[in-house]
Amino acid sequence: MIREYIRDQHGKVRFERLRQAENHLLRFIEIAGDRPLPEYLSADVTAFAKELSERRRLSASTVNGHLSSLSALFNWALAQGHPGLMENPCSGCKLPTGTVAAEQRQQPADKPLTLEQLRAFFEGEETAADFDTPYKYWVPLIQLHTGARIGEICQLEPKDITLIGERIPAFRFVASTARGKSERRVPVHPKLIELGLLAYVDGLDGLDTLWPGLIIPRLGSKGQNMGMWLSRHLERHGLKRSGRRTEAFRATFQHYLRLAGAPELHINALLGHMERKSAGATREPLWQTQPEALLNSLARLDYGIKFSAYVGPGPTGLK
What we know:
By secondary structure, the chain is mostly helical. It is built from 16 helices and 3 strands.
């Protein structure tokens, strides 16, 4: 039934959303068992939600995402006139919106990953096998070493790897704000250079993106598709926890840079946090006035992880 449903939804629902729904539905079968559709009752759906929230410790919003996927399947089956199915057992089974809102208030920021979790993500053979495209390999690494948002990284072009101070390789990140577009430049961490990022970029002559094959939505978040893949990846390997979203590497960057003793002024400049200015005051950004100091602060960051070199397919043949 899931296969039929997914096949029917192709072209109607965005691919990444459909993949996520399929994972939700397969998890329901894993927990509730594989039975004829009419045999599932509201009690089964309630038990499924309880298993996800209490035993597997998923956030209320994540649990409700699973229930939405399940409800959509049953609504589809009802519309198809599935024999014996009289009602949607998911009706009224979502966690209260107040629970979700309270959870978001209590956990306003992403929780940083521990060093053990980082090693599980980047060193584990099982997780490394998932880095089968350049963007799946590089985007988490760049976020971990720059603190940039996923959307900022996903829209990078080869020309956005530039120089500051005439000699320091840097990322040029552009973000849209209520006041228009803002720009900041972040030095390329020595670890990224060691892993071959600049060599990878050099092999992209003639392309207008750093990430061939990554679909960037025309509307909405530029990092939407990448973020959904990363969320599934974290969840699949037990690293997705309540209060942790797909910007976890941004929070991790900030946390460990503080532990390394980097000045808060430099951390804020790297993250793109706006400085408060007195009326009429103008100030050049630190990446223009103190690029060497920013690089020195950034170079303090050393996770002590043995990052694997990228070995998947790619336009450069990077190994």
